[in-house]
Specification:
This protein is mostly helical and 52 residues long. It has 1 helix and no strands.
């Protein structure tokens, strides 16, 4: 197996870091949307909301 260049390693690490950041932000946005939906459902039980 031939050695990998420093530039290639930097690129791979950058892509991995970007993927981790995007996944974590996606989780934060999803969780806050679910929490907001639950709070709205608790406050206005007779209304129908799109999520859940």
């Amino acid at each position: 197996m031939k050695p990998v260049s420093r530039r290639t390693l930097d690129w791979i690490y950058s892509v991995l870091l970007l993927a981790i950041v995007l996944l974590s932000w996606g989780y934060v946005i999803y969780a806050s949307t679910v929490a907001a939906g639950r709070q709205l459902k608790k406050k206005y039980p007779d209304k129908i909301f799109g999520n859940e």
